[in-house]
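Archive entry. Fields below.
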Amino acid sequence: MPSLTLADLQAHLGGTIRGDGNVLLNGAASLEKAGPGQLGFLLGRKFLEQARASAAAALLVPEVLAMSLTEPLPQACLVVANPHACFARALALLHPEPMPAPGIHPSASVAADCSIDATARIGPGCVIEAGARIGAHCVLGPHCVIGAGASLGYACHLHARVTVQHGCVVGDRAILHPGSVIGSDGFGLAWDADPGGGHWLKVPQVGRVVVGDDVEIGANTTIDRGALDDTVIEDGVKLDNLIQVAHNCHIGRHTAIAGCVGIAGSTRIGTYCQIGGAAMIIGHLEIADHVTISSGTFVAKDIREAGTYTSVQPLMRHADWLRNAAHLRHLDALAKRVKTLEKQIADQPAPTTPMERP
Amino acid sequence: MPSLTLADLQAHLGGTIRGDGNVLLNGAASLEKAGPGQLGFLLGRKFLEQARASAAAALLVPEVLAMSLTEPLPQACLVVANPHACFARALALLHPEPMPAPGIHPSASVAADCSIDATARIGPGCVIEAGARIGAHCVLGPHCVIGAGASLGYACHLHARVTVQHGCVVGDRAILHPGSVIGSDGFGLAWDADPGGGHWLKVPQVGRVVVGDDVEIGANTTIDRGALDDTVIEDGVKLDNLIQVAHNCHIGRHTAIAGCVGIAGSTRIGTYCQIGGAAMIIGHLEIADHVTISSGTFVAKDIREAGTYTSVQPLMRHADWLRNAAHLRHLDALAKRVKTLEKQIADQPAPTTPMERP
Amino acid sequence: MPSLTLADLQAHLGGTIRGDGNVLLNGAASLEKAGPGQLGFLLGRKFLEQARASAAAALLVPEVLAMSLTEPLPQACLVVANPHACFARALALLHPEPMPAPGIHPSASVAADCSIDATARIGPGCVIEAGARIGAHCVLGPHCVIGAGASLGYACHLHARVTVQHGCVVGDRAILHPGSVIGSDGFGLAWDADPGGGHWLKVPQVGRVVVGDDVEIGANTTIDRGALDDTVIEDGVKLDNLIQVAHNCHIGRHTAIAGCVGIAGSTRIGTYCQIGGAAMIIGHLEIADHVTISSGTFVAKDIREAGTYTSVQPLMRHADWLRNAAHLRHLDALAKRVKTLEKQIADQPAPTTPMERP
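PREDICTED_STRUCTURE:
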């Protein structure tokens, strides 16, 4: 790990130093675990006591919090306006990824007519098929498969056993995690009658997956190639683990999608959306820009306006659930009973009061 | 890609030609993207204007639509009775999969006593263990693992890094997508008391997975081997990506299951079922033939009759959801309050009218 | 397979023999499929008739059931107090896993400075990176990747293509199924403003995954490394297939989690919990010890007390669902209408009875 002073960090991140800018840092850790030589992160007021007690050598502190402190923190501090972005950048500076030497591991299988930049690293067991193109400074971990005619842009990092199927295109600086699959066949089936009762015919999937720049794709996530047109993942999209993106989906730039989400075929998701874990979106929908979908939500209709959308059942003790959920099967009947009551009340003569009586 | 005339297609697909049957085709594309030499697909009336504007050289058109046209389409047309099946077949004719030359890649690890047909293709890094059998015209992509004693039938296509564990049987013409796992251990646990509070014992899983003919299994889908008996996937079943099929499930022929579905242990699903994405089916259930389960649906009881079944929450704006969902925890109380009201109304004396008054 | 007498089994499992203890067993099977030489399992009274009709050579029978039989079973029986645990142990004795010879397959890529115990088996295509440590009697199937500085304890069994990323620690006797990924990056993103509308910055994930002893992890399950601190999986935890465990989760010992579950970041799950398939747990929660979460349940708040918790929609015929679910969007309005009715009824004068009339 590199050694940097707090002042070095300031040179990269901006902000102002409180205390000793020469304190030497060789890593970062949580407030609880940080020790000498380590940077800690005070990302919110609720961690203030923990920060005061931390053995961290220095702290990154949000400006808004620093301004409100009545007594200074015991550590040297770098006070910044945008703490989350600085948190990310400081970690990248203090924990740079090791960059393996360029070259093709002797156990890799590389087709004669593919193009691999001399600065790229091709790991053990990788298979690069005919016509594939690997850009400068790409790093491919063990057992990656780049299909015929597929291409990776500049400085992509593919961890172990990533599969990019034939013809797919990945832009610059992609990060693809282990087990992810780009360009598997979409689930295209056509029903074919036959005397035995019929069967499914496979619809060949001749589109591609086209992935923009600065995209991250999580472990064991799958993105299907288009049926005729392409499946498109725009610039800056971030996908977590175990996500399924079906054929012909289009995900707008800078949309972030958490783990276990499924998106059925031909759905278009706008830009700057945030989709919570395990949300499920059916096919052929349009989701507007700047939409937030809560975790666990099922989306079965277009969302045409920015905002937050939800559809989940609240958690209950099982005994309570048994009692309550039974009524969900009779909600229509219940609503009708309420309507009947309303009518009965309305049809009653105005209640007579003693004064009105004859 | 091959070059075929529209008349060549007609020879394979049937139907009638309107316009020039000699138009040459070398591929297919969407109506929007198709250009000269490409076949387009007009699969429904709502795409009619798009079809008229398409640069496609020829169109595949459903008979029922063609008969109702008041003015002919500008392109040569092949009019067919079963458009979806013809769509699949035309794509397969115009975009045939490249068939790699037979042979075993030198980097594959092949046990001495396995049986690999001379027409099969074994890709780089594949591992074929003792006693495994690979049928004629099988194609195994990179890094497939065929466990001891497992077998693949005729003309199976395994894409990159498919794992078929020991003893499992796959029929003819299977298509297995990257990362799929056939025959992982079922989740079999037995509770064992001990002075420390108890622990789980693994129940060895000694059954197999038996997959019929013409089955397709999606990327990163997992199918567990049976505990004692086998897990069975019958002929013609189609499984999308990221599906979990637990031990001892039995899936009837020609059932199609969309992505992200989970099926817990020992559940039997009938023939010709359609299960929407992210549906979840608990264990030890029986699902009848010809059942459709909507996307996102949770199935916790047997389904004994054909039909469509659903259990999802409708999507709401988050603020509406907050207001509405709170009542789900008190639905039983609400129903009781309605009952009380009904009783109160019923117990009221019939409203007296002025005429009746003494 | 080994040949054991029923008396041999008794020596390992305890219990009492009814009938011929010398009956020879070479395997186990279901009551329906068991034949001569095979052990069957009578695990509950409802299988009694099936057991009587079974061709099994011997049966394992729960004590409580054996005591209540009015006529003896036709087979030799081993009567045991803890049938499920004995079921697991008997299967392990009758179907021992083949243990491959120690050694490193010549196609494996092994860094010069890693440490591999001489009793370990490293399969074809495995990649063991610098500084990794592989304990005694570990068995690694084909294409496993052990990242730099990662370690496996004693007698771990990694099936095909398991990935353990750099620095992660796995304890003794772990069983990791195909495609599982330990130590992929957590989904850590920081929003960074820019003139173009902003973008996500990757937060480097510098924590590890630390897995205890006797842990089993299912096929294609993913466990992310911590952001700063570690993700922790304690001793005896059992995870099924296609589970996502996000960064900094902590799963207590002997908790069992079924397939397709997602657990978002920093959530702590207690000891001895059972989580049903496809449950989804949001981030930063605390789940107490001995909590059971039903299949398909969405957990969005802390669970502080042991017990069973549920939140799912009941299944309906689609037509019923359409009728009922529409009201979920108006549940708040319905509750208000009931309240109004209650007020109207309460405000009515006490109904006059004939006696009270003037």
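CURATOR_NOTE: The first helix of chain A runs from residue 6 to 13.
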